[in-house]
Amino acid sequence: MALIGVFDSGVGGLSILDEALRQLPEHDFIYLADSAHAPYGERSGAWIASRSLALCTYLASQGCDAIVVACNTATAEAIAQIRIELDTIPIVGVEPGIKPAVMQSQNGVLGVLATEATLNSDKFNALLHAISPNCTVIKQAGAGLVPLIEAGKANTDETLALLAKHLEPIQKAGADTLVLGCTHYPFLNKAIHQILGESITLIDTSEAVVRQLKRQLNNPEKKVQTVKAGSIIFLSSKDEKTLLKMAKELMRSDLNAHAIDAKLLRDLE
After folding, report:
1. Which UniProt keywords apply (predicted)?
2. Domains and CATH numbers, the chain
């Protein structure tokens, strides 16, 4: 049985944890939400890189056998350095699903909803350069969406109105596929379909991310024993009780099947 760290700027990475519990329920997890400093997408690249490395180093010090950087912004700005510094354990990142979107689109018009930091990153732009020049990509920053989701307002009229504003350029361009370039955004799936219609294809890479994690854990050198269900520690830099409450509200997994604890992160403050 492995101990897996899942790190995000806030509650967005719960979408990754949810999928991890579906594919890997037997393992133990630490979910670290840096909610005191969310959203990362509006911060400088240097700050994101430094903070992300510090938090992943903390998770490694807690005995994690693998770490998922479940934040597109942190992955774009920091994962290369994290992998250098923590080279003894697998580090799995997330990135916008541009390639699967190209494969699934029927008309070659793609929308990408992500944070400003992700859209401006070298890593994201390298993904764009690798796709067919016949594809049209409409990039849209989802400014303001993450704080609303963090505040438990994913399904409010306020969020719906802001989301509609952000999706307008994508809708006008006739995109048939939308890449969710932030792990917070899968919690807006219902609202997105309400605005764009049921025919829009949403690309969420959480399943692929966890498959990659699973491959890393199945490495013969890192073979683990399996049991029925592992434990989950919810760790927040802001409010551990709110994090646990939101996990129960947002996640589809049956958390009652796992031993659960919620703690406040103090070590790095």
Report:
1. Cell shape, Cell wall biogenesis/degradation, Isomerase, Peptidoglycan synthesis
2. 3-94+206-264 (3.40.50.1860), 98-203 (3.40.50.1860)
